[in-house]
Amino acid sequence: MSAIELAGLSIEGPRGPLVHGIDLSVEAGEAIGIVGESGSGKSLTLRSIIGLLPRGVRVSAGQVTTSGRLGMIFQDPLSALDPLTTVGKHVIEICRHVRGMSRAAARARAVELFTEVGLPDPEAKLRSYPHQLSGGQRQRVVLAVALAAEPEILLCDEPTTALDVTVQAQVLALIETLRRERGLTVVFVSHDLAVISQVCSTVAVMQAGRIVERGPTAEVVTEPRHPYTRSLIDAVLEVPRPDAPASDAAADLNAPRTEGDVR
Ligand SMILES: Nc1ncnc2c1ncn2[C@@H]1O[C@H](COP(=O)(O)OP(=O)(O)OP(=O)(O)O)[C@@H](O)[C@H]1O
After folding, report:
1. 242 vs 202, 218, 235, 239, 246, CA distance in Å?
2. What are φ and ψ of residue 175, in 5° steps?
3. What is the DSSP string of 167-193?
4. Residue 147 has what DSSP assignment?
5. End-to-end CA distance of the chain, in Å?
6. What structural domains does the chain harbor?
7. pLDDT in tens, 200-250
8. Atom 1 of ligand 1 has which residue's CA nearest to it?
9. What SUPFAM superfamilies does UniProt report for this protein, alphabetically (predicted)?
């Protein structure tokens, strides 16, 4: 059974349809990226998986099925953390209240999790407040908070966009390590194909509320079939690609790697 199954998922807001009949199947342990420009429907699709759609926005058709505990991390770690609560307490509270641990066991687990996400001096870091940490360290804390609930599925909404490039690479490497070691299923939303290709073996490309292309990330990046995917890659690379003739773009719309063909 798949870890996540979206079947004919449509989402609408107060002013009409926003996401149109998405089919997506994610196997346990798989890392899939959802890429697309701002407003293409990535976040709403991701949020529908965990049932966290904004007020006034709802699933209007189709089904979301998940198998496994869900965790989610967001773009801005500062807004995900309470500024008046130590970062250690964030993790300890989840261990106590979600996992039912004693205070001492929860504290020990928090140190383990801070170590696992690569926070320096994890014991001392428990007592830090969010503003006392760097952006990268805060995102590591957010990951530790998500992991404290022992999720099997990790939903990531642009988790590295707010970080500078070097730190971004470190956090991406961490997510990839956690996925491998814990066998996590990962759904990773980003507007940046380069970022997705560091974590995800499969990618779905969204445009205007639809999946227009999907396939192995390496193939989609090197041989995009849909003109929209091509434009995303060109925007990232910002270099001419002499090997990519533009004229066959329309013909490629019916090529095998398009919506509905893969699974
Ligand atoms: N709370 C809301 N109420 C009404 N419309 C919304 C709401 N949230 C998002 N939308 C609309 O739904 C569409 C998809 O939004 P979504 O946030 O999923 O896009 P996205 O691809 O994740 O973009 P971004 O990368 O900017 O986050 C957009 O047209 C957006 O304006």
Report:
1. 25, 19, 15, 9, 10
2. -60, -40
3. HHHHHHHHHHHHHHHHT-EEEEEES-H
4. H
5. 13
6. 1-68+153-237 (3.40.50.300), 78-151 (no CATH)
7. 999 999 999 999 999 999 999 999 999 999 988 887 665 444 554 444 433
8. 54
9. P-loop containing nucleoside triphosphate hydrolases (SSF52540)
**172 CB under 6 A from ligand 1?**
no
DSSP-derived letter for residue 242 is T
Quick one: residue 29, left, alpha or beta (phi over 0 = left, psi -120 to 50 = alpha)?
Answer: left
- Residue 77, ligand 1, Cβ within 6 A: no
Tallying the residues shown for the chain, one arrives at 263
Taking CA atoms only, the protein residue closest to ligand 1 atom 16 is: 41
Question: In the β-sheet with 4-13, what is the strand arrangement from edge to edge?
Answer: 16-26, 4-13, 58-66
Ligand 1 within 6 A of CB of 184: no
Residue nearest to atom 6 of ligand 1 (CA): 13
Q: 80-135: per-residue pLDDT in tens?
A: 899 999 999 999 999 999 999 999 999 999 999 999 999 999 999 999 999 999 99
ipTM: 0.95
Q: Is the CB of 56 under 6 A from ligand 1?
A: yes
Give the DSSP letter of residue 15: T
Q: Which tokens hold the place of 164? A: 């500078």
Our measurement of the distance from residue 17's CA atom to the centroid of its chain's CA atoms, rounded to an integer in Å, reads 23
Q: What is the pLDDT of residues 133-191, one digit of tens each?
A: 999 999 999 999 999 999 999 999 999 888 888 889 998 999 999 999 999 999 999 99
